[in-house]
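Sharing a chain and its predicted structure for anyone who wants a worked example. Both blocks are below, sequence first, tokens second.
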Amino acid sequence: MEASEVGSRRPLAGAQVGAYMYVVDENADVWLVAAGRDLKHCALLPIGGSARSAGWLRVTAQGAVHVNCASGHYMSEDPFLPPEDTYWREAMELTIKEAGFMPGILHTGLQPLPGS
């Protein structure tokens, strides 16, 4: 079983410039841990918790947030297709803005993020 990182995760609003693993929980809250750790995305959720989305994001010095859905564990083999991709993008854009950032590049698949 994967070790829980629920105690060390941070919300998107508390992010600094850098790269992060993220998960969106059932309440549409975005939780992060710094990239570079050997974790699965499910470690960011309480035991038994469900994810709406998961992947990687990067916060730039200009305040843009770039996101992809490259989680592996929660991702299907194909990226989201219309209309689901539109719903995901709209929800992610709103969430990023509410956290005080501006939306950057939002990928629904495995594409690498700028600066990766």
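Comments welcome. The beta strands are 10-11, 18-25, 30-34, 51-59, 64-68, 102-106.
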